[in-house]
Model the fold of this input.
Amino acid sequence: MSETLPAFNTHGVFAIYRFEIARAARTILQSLLTPVITTSLYFIVFGAAIGSRIDEIGGVSYGAFIVPGLIMLSLFTESLSNASFGIYFPKFTGTIYEILSAPISAFEIVLAYVGAAATKSIILGLVILATARLFVPFEIAHPGWTIGFLVLTATTFSLFGFIIGVWAKSFEQLSFVPMLVVTPLTFLGGAFYSIDMLPPFWRTVALFNPVVYLISGFRWSFFGEGDVGVAVSLAATLGFFTLCLVIVWWIFRTGYRLKS
Done:
């Protein structure tokens, strides 16, 4: 007698997804206004003050050059914070046990939380892109790849944020990785400069920073040029995505900090 696969719980996934989106919608003004102001300040400081002293980087004006880095910087931090808080709050209130006992699979739980976090981050990235067009003209060489890298990076870092949310035992731990690990790596990963501008030794050191590959691939989709090959960037992003999937699978397999 053959076994039938359990039906996909569309209602359960959509309920969690809708709740997470609604939570962000309650602070929609801050969520959209903050990145617009931040992006404007970056262009005033980096684009005007520093950009006036730098003609071009790889044939691209400095103002346009920093656009992919600005989007990635916000994408990393927002994906992490949205996904980590989304799963940490049910742990903090104790409602995680109701979710785990509901007729919804681990895959569906992750899909709902990560999908909601990635959706919010992608919208934020598009808002920053639209804001950047107000300050500097630029053309996107490979728009399909731009959307692909945007979705893949948002999903990957939302998975990473989900892991952080499960791991964290306090709100301090929740902000530890984004503030002290991801943000510094982003600034050192070529968000506002090309690593080709670094001395040979430091360029070699920068290549050990995984964020370099993520930003480089996204910048290639804009201008057709990157610090490393687009194939290497895509492979690095997919590798990190796969690693996060494996860790999430292990978390639900063992119940690590979910059932204790």
